[in-house]
């Protein structure tokens, strides 16, 4: 898969959006765009960043992200260890745009 394609990530309900930076997690891509998403460990264990993927596909950067099979099936993801594999829409009510 080409790593030069930049996927767009939209956060709801705020409507904030940013580009997935190739090789970075969704979380770090958001932070690069000055959009703050809840986070703590940034390595897929604490679940602070856990949010719902409403559309799109992700790939994980680690083999065992801290989610149950049921949570994955329900669409929960850990953006600190995930990369967009398509354009995404995420539900993150606590996302903060520091420009506002
Ligand atoms: S920040 Fe800890 S699991 Fe994502």
What are the defining features of this structure?
100 residues; alpha+beta; Ubiquitin-like (UB roll); five-stranded mixed sheet; binds FE2/S2 (inorganic) cluster
Shape: globular
Q: In percent terms, what proportion of residues is strand?
A: 25-35%
What composes the largest sheet?
Answer: 5 strands, mixed
Strand tally, please?
7
Taken together, the total number of domains comes to: 1
Helix and strand content put the structural class at alpha+beta
End-to-end distance: 36 Å
How many helical elements?
2
* CATH homologous superfamily classification: Beta-grasp domain
H/E element sequence: EEHEEHEEE
Helix content: 10-25%
As residue ranges, the low-confidence spans are none
Pfam families: Fer2
GO molecular function: 2 iron, 2 sulfur cluster binding; metal ion binding
Keywords: 2Fe-2S, Electron transport, Iron, Iron-sulfur, Metal-binding, Transport
Protein name: Ferredoxin [2Fe-2S]-type protein
Structure description:
With 100 residues, the protein is α+β, with helices and mostly antiparallel strands. The chain has a single domain, classed as Ubiquitin-like (UB roll) (Roll). The chain has a five-stranded mixed beta sheet. It has a two-stranded antiparallel ribbon with strand order 4-6. The structure holds FE2/S2 (inorganic) cluster. FE2/S2 (inorganic) cluster binds next to loops.
């Amino acid at each position: 898969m080409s790593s030069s394609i930049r996927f767009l990530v939209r956060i709801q309900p705020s409507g904030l959006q940013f580009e997935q930076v190739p090789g970075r997690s969704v979380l770090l891509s958001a932070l690069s765009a000055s959009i703050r998403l809840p986070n703590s460990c940034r390595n897929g264990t604490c679940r602070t960043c856990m949010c719902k993927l409403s559309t799109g596909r992700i790939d994980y950067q680690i083999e065992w992200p801290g989610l149950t099979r049921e949570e994955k099936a329900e669409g929960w993801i850990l953006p600190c260890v995930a990369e967009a594999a398509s354009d995404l829409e995420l539900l993150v009510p606590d996302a903060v745009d520091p420009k506002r």
